[in-house]
Every structure is written in structure tokens, then in C-alpha cells.
């Protein structure tokens, strides 16, 4: 049987994923000593971990070239989902928030607002749910710069500790929703390799709860 292929978001979610796999008892030596290699065996040759950017994790799972993926809820909310989200992994915890310059009355006044975000769809849905018409500008990173430079009135972005906002004179105006890492599964894989996938998800769930 070929290994189950798991797309894993490079960066912040890697360490916690390795810790969870090791709690289950999967050998992560190759993943921990990966160098520049992008496809690594985990748990002997039971699994193959593919290291990818967050949005690409979803693309690979949707197209079925990876059976499973580990990705933040932020990326799922932004990109939509034609896959199954089977488990909240309980790490990579942060929030989506609307934030702006400290002390400004964002919802006061009648002028049309401009919002900068790396997550334009999340921002659009948030303002649509409020019945507010805003202009949204897509920014690729360090979104906090946009209001500081006068490009936008506010931002929709991830907040974890709040340090980036604080150090740049910004504050949360409204929290939008919680974000954490999720286990996602390709629809066909879930049918064809149901037992293996359910077994893995159950192990990850138990390890997360400290029951292994
Ligand atoms: N400050 C944060 N605190 C906690 N989790 C975060 C934080 N920022 C991002 N995340 C989560 O970790 C995931 C990966 O973030 P990471 O910063 O590693 O890469 P990225 O922001 O998607 O892309 P880039 O490589 O361009 O920085 C995010 O999609 C989100 O779910
Ligand atoms: O509340 P904090 O703990 O300060 O974390 C929030 C920051 O972390 C993320 O940025 P990241 O470091 O991923 O860089 P980016 O802005 O380039 O995406 C996010 O976009 C915020 O800027």
C-alpha cells in the first residue's frame, strides 16, 4: 500500500505537528532533519509529509495529489472548502480581528472605509454580515503597515499575542472568530482509504487530548 500523503503548512504549524506525531509514536527523524527536502517519510513509510505554503496545502488536497492536509482555519475560511475538515488540532491558535489605529471611532461617521487584508474574502464576508460596504485592498504581509502608511482605515488580520498591533499603535476594534490548525481530507481519499484515515484522525485526536 502506498503511504498516505499529508500536506503540511510550512512555518509556524510545523513544530506542533511534529510534536503531535511524536506523541503518537511516529518516527519524525527525517522531518526534523529535512534540510531543503520537501517530501519526507514519517512513521517509517506509513506516511509521506509534503511541506507547502498554506494556500497550496488546500490546492494539493483539493486536487487529490495529497490525501490529507494540516492548515490553519484562516486559510480555509479564505479559500473555501471542497474537502472534509475532520479535526481541530488545537494548536496554531490565534484570532481573526478587525484592527485600527488606537482610539479611532471606526464605526462612527458615514464615510466609506478602506480595509487592508491578506484575507480579502474573510474581510468581505465580515463586512457583508454587517451590511457595510467597504473597499478592500489585498496586502501580502505585514498588513499592519497599511493604516500606518495611510493606505487603509483598518485591517483584518490574525492576532495572537497582540504585540504586533501594540508596537505599531494599533488595537483590536472587533474580534471576528477563532483560528486554529485543522486536519483536512480529500473527498475521494476519505472514501478509498477510510479505515487508515479514520485511524490517523483518531490517534491525532487522542494525542491532542493527552490520551496517548
Ligand atoms: N501570529 C500567529 N500566531 C499563531 N498562529 C499563526 C500566527 N500567524 C499565523 N498563524 C497560523 O499559522 C499558519 C502559518 O503561518 P505562517 O506565518 O507560518 O505562514 P504564512 O503567514 O501563511 O505565510 P508566510 O510564509 O508568507 O509568512 C497561518 O495560516 C495561521 O493559521
Ligand atoms: O499578535 P501577534 O502575536 O503579534 O501576531 C500577529 C502577527 O503574526 C502574523 O504575521 P506574520 O509573523 O505571519 O507575518 P506576516 O504579517 O508577514 O504574515 C499576523 O499577520 C500578525 O502580523
Automatic annotation (TrEMBL):
Reactions catalysed: 1-(5-phospho-beta-D-ribosyl)-ATP + diphosphate = 5-phospho-alpha-D-ribose 1-diphosphate + ATP
Keyword NAD among record annotations: no
Subcellular location: Cytoplasm
Pathway assignment: Amino-acid biosynthesis; L-histidine biosynthesis; L-histidine from 5-phospho-alpha-D-ribose 1-diphosphate: step 1/9
Gene Ontology CC annotations of this record: cytoplasm
Sorted UniProt keywords: Amino-acid biosynthesis, ATP-binding, Cytoplasm, Glycosyltransferase, Histidine biosynthesis, Nucleotide-binding, Transferase
Segments traversing the membrane: none
GO biological process terms, semicolon-separated: L-histidine biosynthetic process
Lineage top rank: taxon: Bacteria
Domain ATP phosphoribosyltransferase catalytic: from-to ranges: 53-205
Entry domain remark: Lacks the C-terminal regulatory region which is replaced by HisZ.
Protein name in UniProt: ATP phosphoribosyltransferase
Amino acid at each position: 500500500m502506498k503511504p498516505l500523503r499529508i500536506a503540511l503548512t510550512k512555518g509556524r504549524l510545523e513544530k506542533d505537528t511534529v510534536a503531535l506525531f511524536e506523541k503518537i509514536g511516529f518516527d519524525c527523524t527525517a522531518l526534523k532533519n529535512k534540510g531543503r527536502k520537501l517530501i519526507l517519510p514519517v512513521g517509517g513509510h506509513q506516511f509521506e509529509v509534503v511541506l507547502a505554503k498554506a494556500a497550496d496545502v488546500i490546492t494539493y488536497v483539493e486536487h487529490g495529489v495529497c490525501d490529507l492536509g494540516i492548515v490553519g482555519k484562516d486559510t480555509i475560511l479564505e479559500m473555501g472548502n471542497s474537502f472534509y475538515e475532520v479535526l481541530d488540532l488545537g494548536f496554531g491558535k490565534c484570532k481573526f480581528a478587525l484592527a485600527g489605529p488606537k482610539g479611532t471611532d471606526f464605526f462612527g461617521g458615514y464615510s466609506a472605509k478602506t480595509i487592508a487584508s491578506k484575507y480579502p474574502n474573510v474581510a468581505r464576508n465580515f463586512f457583508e454580515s454587517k451590511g457595510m460596504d467597504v473597499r478592500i485592498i489585498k496586502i501580502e504581509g505585514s498588513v499592519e503597515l497599511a493604516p500606518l502608511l495611510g493606505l487603509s482605515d483598518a485591517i483584518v488580520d490574525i492576532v495572537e499575542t497582540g504585540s504586533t498591533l501594540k508596537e505599531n499603535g494599533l488595537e483590536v476594534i472587533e474580534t471576528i472568530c477563532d483560528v486554529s490548525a485543522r486536519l483536512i481530507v480529500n473527498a475521494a481519499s476519505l472514501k478509498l482509504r477510510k479505515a487508515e484515515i479514520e485511524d490517523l484522525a483518531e490517534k491525532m485526536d487522542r494525542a491532542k487530548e493527552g490520551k496517548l
